[in-house]
Write a structure and sequence with these properties.
four-stranded mixed β-sheet; binds adenosine-5'-triphosphate; six-stranded mixed β-sheet; Rossmann fold; alpha/beta
Length: 265
């Protein structure tokens, strides 16, 4: 799936622009979102508000529905129930979990980056992204031949060049070496003012999530728990899912949670 920037009105899911909301901080609200494929229940009763410039981490075991939720927000699939409300026009930036270029498709880095809307940033701001993500020497290279870390930098640049107000990072650190991971975390933590935006970060890196996030949502087809890391760490649902792996390198623990209704902290 390509990096994509979609205005809210391209979403298939019921997205409405709500200019009457009194809380000016809200950017996007998901209300009672469910997604089924036939009898298979992928997501149930999801309520999430994301505020302007807020970073939200989304965690959950394999198959919890994290990527499905991202697809719903991106408008790539349509929810079975519920609604999404964009409180201001959404400019979405997306760094996908995987980016597979077919071997027969010539796609240079400069070709991919040229898809961004050139009018959204000044040339100095664009150069800032190129310099800080060390892209200049990669521009004529084929996407197919980039390393994992180089690919992530290009995809992040592609998303940022559109100056998103909601940046969705789907497991951005997958396949990166520890030094590159630290560097990338620092880069997204310290975005300059002209790139500040809300972020939804899907991550399996529990240590980063619990150290580096202000708000964490724990998904397992429904929202098991959510809150600040300090609140989450003592919640029963979090303990069931991740408890004894939290102080060790994270290894997923199969989850036997049987809830069908959302239960929040
Ligand atoms: N189009 C589809 N048809 C049938 N099942 C699907 C489809 N898309 C996803 N699923 C199933 O829905 C569940 C949730 O998938 P999803 O990719 O959203 O999980 P995830 O939390 O992102 O997992 P991971 O951490 O492994 O990336 C999985 O069991 C998956 O097999």
């Amino acid at each position: 799936m390509n990096t994509s920037t979609l205005p809210s009105n391209q979403s298939n899911t019921a997205v409405t622009n709500d200019s009457t909301v009194s809380n000016a901080d809200k950017l996007l609200s998901l209300k009672n979102i469910s997604y089924h494929i036939g009898p298979q229940r992928l997501l149930s009763h999801i309520d999430i508000d994301i505020a302007v410039n807020e970073t939200v981490s989304l965690i959950g075991p394999n198959g919890a529905g994290k990527s499905t939720l991202v697809k719903l927000i991106l408008g790539l699939i349509e929810s079975t129930d519920g609604s999404m409300t964009a409180h201001q026009p959404l400019q979405l930036g997306y760094v996908p979990q995987r980016f597979a270029v077919p071997p027969i498709l010539p796609l240079r880095v400069c070709d991919l980056l040229a898809q961004a809307d050139k009018k959204r940033l000044t040339s100095e701001q664009r150069q800032f992204i190129f310099d800080n993500l060390s892209l200049t020497h990669l521009l004529s290279r084929q996407m197919l031949h980039l390393s994992g870390g180089e690919t992530q930098r290009v995809l992040l640049a592609r998303a940022l060049l559109d100056k998103p107000n909601l940046l969705i990072l789907d497991e951005p650190m997958q396949g990166l070496d520890p030094d590159t991971e630290v560097w990338l975390y620092q880069f997204i933590d310290e975005l300059p003012d002209f790139l500040r935006c809300a972020m939804l970060v899907v991550s399996h890196d529990l240590h980063w999530v619990m150290k580096g996030s202000r708000r964490v949502i724990c998904l397992n087809k429904h929202i098991c728990c959510e809150g600040q890391p300090s609140e989450l760490a003592i919640s029963t649902e979090f303990q069931k899912l991740f408890g004894h792996h939290y102080e060790q390198p994270y290894v997923h623990q199969p989850h036997a949670c049987e809830h069908h209704a959302p239960s929040k902290l």
